[in-house]
Amino acid sequence: MPATNKRTYARYTQAAVTLVGQLIQAERKQRRMPLQELAERVGASRGTLQRLEGGDPKVELGIAFEACTILGIPLFQEDLVGVKNRVEVMRQRLALLPKYARPLQTEADDDF
Asked: How many other C-beta atoms lie within 10 A of the C-beta of residue 29?
């Protein structure tokens, strides 16, 4: 059996994922919504939602976003229109950038 690769995450990432899980858990409990009901509405298993609420960074981002949306937890400061506007601005910005990211090739200026 091959060894599993343990993925490490930055402390900020771990803290952010933990915070999202806590926000979801708190809002779900405040609404008196059973975990199984939220799992069904999100389209995930109960175990996945338990991992999400526990701060597991390996839970799919889409599942976390969907749970936040269902519970009314804002992901960004804007409403839907604001997010759509930012998506369009970013689309335009990305269109102006090069298709591929390549490191700059510079010659060393060692003529002293």
From this structure: 12
